């Protein structure tokens, strides 16, 4: 009994019957009368088979209760429903056979429905692909037609352009031949003029140099630095005297003195970038050079910082003289609505290389020799740092030549640390408020800091350190080779060789006056 009931449940006949009823309902208005009748008979047969199986199960249940087992329930509930036309299908088919037939029929129906759905789906996909292929074909036809039209149009235009191009080429050839002939004549004339100007300039330089030497020899026996300054001044005067002949100020769209001037902005950006490159490259190269002769890191850092300071001092002094002479020469011929200062700045912008670099490098080296805070071994001079000195002087000159010049901040030892201008080095005492010494200067423009410098802070920082040794180049005065009379010690030279004010116990103000 239990096995028969389990098989009936596993087959799922009632679910198959429900599916057939739902499918019949969905296709009722589509099917014909014969199809609906056949579908109804199929459902009735399936229902009859199920009822036959249920009646067999009912008989088995009643037999398990004995002769009269379940009689009351059958009389009260089953008999009233039995009618005259009620029948059960059993026949010669056993229960297992009927159940297997039902299962096979349900499986076949499901397979047929799945196949039909797959077929309809594939038909829809084929229709979509066919429509897409037709659309692409039509697009290709349109593009081909447009390409044909474009090709025909380009052929017509190229034919007409070719005719005009030949005429233009012939005309340009004639103009080019005339321009080359004119250029050849101008070159020959300019070559002669350049030769004349070069010869005149050379003669003026020689005359000015001889005149300056004659005047100096008549007055007093000068030293070497005086000769250099006079020679440099005479050359600069001759260069500036040519302004009256060749230079005329032509006003531009913006004033050369404007902070928004194109030359000011572009050169300022390039100079700031060069200043950073010198800190990252030239400074380290010079430190490596100094490390071969001295292991004192602090002294080497002081030397590099002093080079930058003295380079800017010398460059600003020389540029101030150059600007004054330029203004004096332009004032003779300047006229127009624009100011004289605009004309001076325009000339400076056009001639930023009119400076004597070797003489300024020599001035920086002499200033380093006079600095009591730095030192080198006796057999070494500051000429070993000449690459950095040259680059620093050129940078300082170009920064001074701007309409709104750039400068380095004033710095002294034992000053209060200013974090708006400097950053501390890695070996600094970060709680110390005073600067022991500076590594690199801060770049400023007016009161605005453009690039921060670097400084070392220490507790108990002093105003300076005594000079440990003196190189022969600095110990021997250059004046001795000029005249025997220069061997006498002047008061100024005596004061410069006196002991350091710091060792004598003088105040910083008194020391700065003596130095």
Textual characterization of the structure:
It contains 16 helices and six strands. The longest helix has 125 residues. It is elongated, with a radius of gyration of 55 Å. The C terminus is likely disordered. The chain is mostly helical and 515 residues long. Helix content is 65%, strand content 4%. Helix 3 crosses helix 5, helix 9 crosses helix 10 and helix 9 runs parallel beside helix 12. The strands form two sheets. The protein has a three-stranded antiparallel β-sheet. It has a three-stranded mixed β-sheet with strand order 2-6-3. Keywords: Coiled coil, Cytoplasm, Lipid-binding, Membrane, Mitochondrion, Mitochondrion outer membrane.
Strand-helix topology:
Layout: H1 2-11, H2 13-26, H3 33-64, H4 71-78, H5 95-219, H6 224-241, H7 243-246, H8 262-291, H9 297-330, H10 340-350, H11 357-369, H12 386-400, E1 407-408, E2 422-424, E3 435-440, E4 443-445, E5 448-451, E6 453-457, H13 472-475, H14 491-496, H15 501-504, H16 508-514
Parallel strand pairs: 2-6
Antiparallel strand pairs: 1-4, 3-6, 4-5
List descriptors.
single chain; 515 residues; 3-stranded mixed β-sheet; 16 helices; elongated; disordered C terminus
Task: Give a quick precis of the structure.
With 515 residues, the protein is mainly alpha-helical. The chain has helices spanning 2-11, 13-26, 33-64, 71-78, 95-219, 224-241, 243-246, 262-291, 297-330, 340-350, 357-369, 386-400, 472-475, 491-496, 501-504, 508-514, and strands at 407-408, 422-424, 435-440, 443-445, 448-451, 453-457. Helix 1 (2-11) crosses helix 5 and helix 2 (13-26) runs antiparallel to helix 3 (33-64).
